[in-house]
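Subgroup meeting minutes
Present: P.N., E.W., G.H.
Scribe: E.W.

1. P.N. recapped why we're keeping a running log of single-chain structure predictions: easier to compare across weeks, and new members can see raw inputs and outputs side by side.
2. G.H. added today's entry (1294 aa).
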Amino acid sequence: MADSLEETLAKIRPHTSSNLPHQKAPATLLIALESTFAEQNTQRTPTAYFAALLTTLDSTLQAARSSTPDFGDGDVLPAELYILALVIPHVPHPVIRSHLSTILSLTAPLFPALVPHAPPLRSQLSLYEAVLRALDRSQLETHGLRQAFESILHLCLDPRPKVRKRAAELVKDVLAHPPPSLRHPYADRVAEWVQAALAEVTSGGLPKFKGKKAESEGSETAIHLLAFLRPVLPCLPSSSLPAITSSLLTLPRLGNPYVSQSAYSILADLLLIPVEDPVHNIQDRLPEILDAILASPPLRTDSSVTSAWAGVLGHGMIAYHEADAEAASKKLWEVWHAVWPFMESTDASVRKAVAQSLDSLTQCFTPSITASAIKEKQSNEGKSTLRKVIAQTTKALDSLAFARSTPEILLVVSSLLSHLRFRQDGQGSPTAAEELLLLSVKKIADLRLQKGFEYKESADATLSVAMGVLGPEVLLRELPLNLDVADRQAGREPRAFLLPMLSQPHPSPLSHFVSYFVPFTERMFDLQAKAEAEGRPSEAKVWSVLVDQVWSGLHGYCYGTPDLKEALTPQFSQLLSQLLYSQPNLRPAVLKALRLMVESNVAIASGDGERLAKLPEGARADPISQEAASANVAFLRTQCESWLAVLFNVFTSVGRDGQGMVGDVIRAWASIADEKEINKAYHKLVNLLNQNVVKAQATSATKESESVTGMTLDLLILMSPYFSSSDATNLFNLCLASDILESRDNAVQKRGYKVLSKVVESGKVNVDAEDILQRLDKVTDGLTAAAKKDRFLLLTLLVARIPPTSLHLVPSIIPEAVLGTKEPSEKARNAAFDLIVTMGKKMAEGGVVKRNLVDGMDEDSAGEAKASIEEYMTMIAGGLAGATPHMISATITAISRLVFEFKDDISPQMHVEIFTTLLVFLTSANREIVKSTLGYVKLAIHTMPVELLRPHLKEIVPALLKWSHDHKNHFKAKVRHIFERLLRRFGWEDVYSCATEDSARKVLLNIKKRKDRAKRKRARAAENDEEDEEPTAKPAAGDAFEDVLYGSESELDDSDDEMPSGRQDRAGKRKDNGGARLRVDDDEPMDLLAGAASRITSANGKKRRKPGEDAARFKTDEDTGKMVIGDEQDEDENMEEDVAGRAYRESLTSADGFTRGPNGRVKFNKDTKKRRRENEDGEDVEMADAEASSGRKSKRKSDPKLGHEFKAKVCRRGSVITSIAKASGRIYRRLVVMLKREALIHTRISHFHKQRRRKVGKRGLVLREKDEFFGTHHVFFCIFSTIFSCFYPFLRGL
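Output recorded in log:
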């Protein structure tokens, strides 16, 4: 049975004891079905479940014919439909086709009765989704099935969200997966139903008065219909699209904002659908559609509808441009003029949508409209569409009405620049952007220089686009950098912000860099040197940064430059070489330029789409011709020899971190070099390698010679793909020598194996696997741990090339590969696992294993064996008889990997033998063996079929429970996770019955409680959430085997700490409408007619705090003027001054106080909890170290522990005695304050009792004496509590 179905049913079985009827009924039904299967010895297959459920459903309906079927929560019929909906997706399609009539006769009549009952209705919909997707074209025409589909269509407008969503998903999935044909046969019927429903909505209209029932019903129907239409639209026939479009165009007239927004959004999607039927093409109706949209513009205050309206206009114009470019260009100004006024909106989202719509309109510029605009510019006319668009956009930059829209207007200018790359006279002539937009760019640059301009980032983005379209040669001619000393002295504003924009692809030739920036950087170098010599490091850093920015932009000139042959002169090449050698900070920029110089020209010359796609968009937008690129490649090929020599020297001089970039450049130049030059480079590198190997063998070998050997091998690795077959063979034999593979240097060994792997992978060497493996076996004694990963990779390549008749070589590799799974390096372990799996695949392909040629094989076992995965598993299992626990543990790990990889190829009998054999190792006393065995058991429970594991439950459970109390190596947690997985697959009863001892049963009960507790937490969290959220995906380790073995689902799902500690609050943030205000400047008058953009700010309008404003709140020393911050003593003095007033207030509010009524009678305060809590709070405030407690406390910071200020600290000048002295000072001050307060209270109490004694006579004397006695003791108790509260935390801290 399919594992996915078994996992689904396993979640239902435990609910037999549930208190919820809708959970208990399906579980009871499932247990009854499976009991019947057990009695009849029927295998639990999806087909068996399907047949049994149909029979049960038929019996239930037969019994209910006399009355209406019951669809309550605990009834049988909903449970049958529920399980049938779960089972039928796993049933083979031929079985469903053969039982179609039975399914229809049983379920189709239920639709009317199921409508009031949502849960069984959703089960019915799931059932029909699987049925409809399983049928062929002829069966879909069945009358009863069409009627059922008609009922499903009407449910797509059901008022219940879950039912409506399920029906819409069914229709979408069925139409998206038609039987072998272009379109589903039900697509026409769905289109007809959509048209009829739209017509009904538009004809009836939507009421405009809120609170009416008709309004909610009509608007909800329209909203549900549009939500259904959006995903289904691509599946409908093209003949229905014009009618649907007409209906959608009428929906905005109904006055409902959400319906209008949805209609426009769907129209935008509809216009972008590619239509295959030219007869029924909506492109012919685009002018009519655009006119209808333009005729009903939304209100400027309606932000949601405006955004959708602008979006559909942009999409419509793009579709119109693709259908008829010239006609669309004539419509362009009308649409632009209609959309542009919404740029003044106060809503930022509307302005963004309008900018996107205008960007779509800029894509509709044609060569003819651009050429006419250029011609009009020369004649100083402005009647063309493009000239009017540019004039309107440029004027808006100075307009106060569009001040808040400056970022969006800058985006529009960027769009204009990007789509005006047209060159009227071909390559070499100025672009249309240069002819038409240069004044706009200059105005933006001037705004960027203004001190108060707020949108500098947006302006930089637009200027960056201008740099990519126009090029530095054009842009810097109009906007000079003004960075020289003479420019600064003349008062010209510098434009250093243009330098970072040089790094993007642009059309300027490389000769401009050579003629303009090379002298510029030389002047900057001189200024830097002068500043350093005169002791001005800050100024020197400024010049250094400018130089770095200039050279970082060099690679922008190298994307298919047209004048490469003239610009890359010997003088410039020599300069680049000197920078590579002597300027480490400029080296990355020069290397990147050299690499792109080759790669871009090769990609353009090849015309290959994949290579061109790797280039930046700017390089693809206006490239040079293929002929020019081919000429550049030919010229670069003549420079390869000298540049490879330079790059080799640079490679050996830089550190390990910088060799990667140099290596990329070497590969690029080697890819275009001639075979003769490659051969010369090969001989130079081999001679250098031999010399250093000889030096390394000498007794006085230095680390320098070994490092040179390693770098030489790195260069050979880089160049190996370009060597000829003869050179590759010689290199392979050279690296097989023991001088390299047994070198004392780890780096030399690693690179030796890498060279061998690269050469074998290239296929230029005839590999004799047997001979090479024998030679590799001889060098194992000198193998270092660092080279094992590369050795495993080489062995993996060699194993794949072993002929089927030489599979006797595989057993000789197995021990090394198995032990490699225990390597400390993760990469080495992964390489060893790959080697083990590769050997398994090689054995699974078939062949012959000649046992007599295997080393150490007994004569009795000699002979030939047929290669298979089971034979290979037997070979691996030989390691279980190893002499060391390390070997046994590694063998178990290797077997686990093979079981996971080849679980479907291994026979059930072999699975059982492996499982029973490895289960014995759970009784081992060695923890390393047990750890690997637990991993295998977890894997087996996840991988093996349930039928194979069930007979061994009585062995698995006691063996695992033995380690359930062992905390070392996390055995307890691992065993618990395994039991959680067991409970999922077999159920609670089966696992619990296998535990014999009481202590073992307690472990299982604890696991069950943990699972139930976690389930309740999830249920509570789901109830507390306002919305149903999708469960977050669990982080995967990147390898399926690692996920199953170490990061299983159970470890995250059913642990105690699975629930997050807290959820983020969903408090909505205040919406920023992008409002703008005028910035007030006290020094300068404001000109509202020009340059308003620099006077606008979107910052908060609240008054900002001025520097030094808070300082005015502090006292200042009259002599020095320094701030005087009050200490604790000042606060205590202030507190002492108000003792009488505080004592009076406390006499009225505390538990010991009293009040007088209107007639003068005394009423004592009640000793309530609230008063005691208030008194305690007041005492805490007084005794706290920080007395200023009126401020608001931070919620994030936890309250300090009691006595934290007395905790002993170790510092340079402090000690415990210092803490005691400070504590004593505090105690004294607080006792003085408290005694004064208590004395005053005691005086007032005595005075009160004198007055009372006069009234009550002799009895009053007794009361007075008692009160005075308790009052005195109250004072001494407060003194003692004060001393104790101050000293006890300190003593506890010690």
